[in-house]
TrEMBL record:
Gene Ontology molecular functions: catalytic activity
Ranges for region Disordered: 324-363
Matching SUPFAM superfamilies: alpha/beta-Hydrolases
Organism listed in the record: Streptomyces prasinopilosus
Domain AB hydrolase-1 intervals: 62-306
A Pfam family this chain is assigned to: Abhydrolase_1
Identification of the protein by name: Pimeloyl-ACP methyl ester carboxylesterase
InterPro entries associated with the record: AB_hydrolase_1 (IPR000073), AB_hydrolase_fold (IPR029058)
Length: 363
């Protein structure tokens, strides 16, 4: 299966070029981090990184969830700097990445953008980590391009549920046409602080885990995002893309693609998750063929932010076991039997080939 097998979303009108972005506050870059822009066909991605403890460590790439950004991984990356060389990407239209030129925010489009980056940067295969929407994107990447993925780590992945939790319904409603506009009008008087308190209450098992400093930074980031002319459009279209992915059947269905993943997979589920049902943990463990399940009873939807130490410990165990298996020749390496033929042309690959990347360091 190649990335030509990524299903295309229904046509959507192109997003007009964003204006006034220079007036928005700068994206926060934590001490030790670096932020750079990577120009790819159809989109410019922002990539956050921090120096590894030493040269030669295997690369890792982190993908955030709906409404998040690469900053969601800033607490975890320092805890892994001695075992992997970490980068975190802002998906198109989120963080400091520009909206996609074609206005496509489907799960497949997000996956294609990440694939283009990995192919252009030559960093694959990577240890791929994803949260929520990013977990769905990472699952699709691992299924269609196993040559790009060493291991897969999913934190509360947004995989299809038949019975969605009531607390997740408002987020899903953003997918309906016009709802984002109505919500914007209804909440016009809300302050950034009020909005952040609502997000924290929804995403954390224990909101008290958020320090005053982290809360202040989140408010500043919310204020920045609300100034972006495409903020609500990116939220609504990505929510719609996720809902659409839930309805896909056959080989494009996310559960079917989970069954095709070859990489050793770590699944982390929070017992107090109000967005992804804890009951889905068992089904996920059965779907991914080479998986291990870690449950965090007190965690919410963003365990890598709420309890990064526990997530780091679980990832280290995965990495250790995967390394041992690789030394024994048990894992699939790029070019091995079952890996996609690198000569097979794909829409995503052809878009990147010859385009190269242009990087603009920031921070």
């Amino acid at each position: 299966m190649s990335s030509t097998d990524l299903p295309s979303a229904a046509p959507v009108p192109p997003v007009p070029p964003a204006t006034g972005l220079s007036e928005a506050a700068a994206v926060r870059v934590a001490e030790g981090e670096r932020l750079r822009s990577v120009e790819l066909p159809g989109v410019t991605l922002s990539v956050r990184s921090r120096p590894a403890a030493r040269e030669g460590l295997p690369p890792a790439l982190h993908i955030h969830g709906l409404g998040g950004s690469s900053q969601n991984w800033s607490s975890l990356m320092p805890l892994l700097e001695d075992v992997v060389d970490s980068e975190a990407v802002d998906l198109p239209g989120f963080g400091d990445s520009s909206p996609p030129a074609d206005g496509d925010y489907s799960v497949s489009a997000h996956a294609r953008a990440v694939i283009r980056y990995l192919d252009a940067a030559g960093r694959g295969p990577v240890h791929l980590l994803g949260n929520s929407l990013g977990g769905a994107v990472a699952t699709r990447i691992a299924a269609v391009r196993p040559d790009l993925v060493r291991t897969l780590t999913l934190v509360s992945p947004a995989l299809p549920e038949l019975r969605v939790q009531r607390t997740a319904v408002p987020t899903g409603l953003l997918a309906l046409p016009g709802v984002a506009r109505l919500f914007t009008r209804a909440t016009r008087g809300w302050t950034a602080e009020q909005r952040v308190r609502g997000v924290v209450a929804l995403c954390y098992g224990d909101p008290g885990q958020v320090s005053p400093e982290a809360f202040r930074h989140a408010v500043q980031e919310m204020e920045r995002r609300l100034r972006l002319p495409y903020f609500w459009d990116a939220m609504a279209r990505s929510a719609r893309g996720l809902v659409n992915a839930y309805t896909l059947g056959g080989q494009h269905g996310l559960w079917r693609q989970a069954e095709r993943v070859l990489a050793p997979t770590l699944l982390l589920y929070g017992g107090r998750d109000r967005l992804v049902g804890f009951r889905m943990a068992g089904r996920a463990a059965r779907a991914f063929r080479d998986s291990r399940l870690v449950t965090l009873p007190d965690a919410g939807h963003v365990a890598m932010m709420e309890c990064p130490g526990a997530v780091a410990a679980a990832f280290r165990e995965l990495l250790s076991d995967a390394t041992d298996s690789a030394e024994k020749g048990d894992t699939l390496e790029p070019g091995a039997t079952g890996a996609p033929d690198s000569a097979a042309g794909t829409a995503a690959d052809e878009a990147v080939d010859g385009g190269g990347t242009a990087e603009n360091p920031r921070g």
